[in-house]
């Protein structure tokens, strides 16, 4: 179940990528790979690997190279 996702179980890179996607989402922006690379300072290959992992495991949803948060039962507030 998605409610069992625990951000503390993610690697540091995966958590960093997830946080960047969440921050973009709360600002109403789409999360493109280049935006996540820019925000995190991580190498593009690391970001792509994390985006794929997070998508495959239901943390994120991907659509045409744009990433959004997957289903979750908690709030995200980055203001």
UniProtKB/TrEMBL annotation:
<dbReference type="InterPro" id="IPR036388">
    <property type="entry name" value="WH-like_DNA-bd_sf"/>
</dbReference>
<dbReference type="InterPro" id="IPR036390">
    <property type="entry name" value="WH_DNA-bd_sf"/>
</dbReference>
<protein>
    <submittedName>
        <fullName>Uncharacterized protein</fullName>
    </submittedName>
</protein>
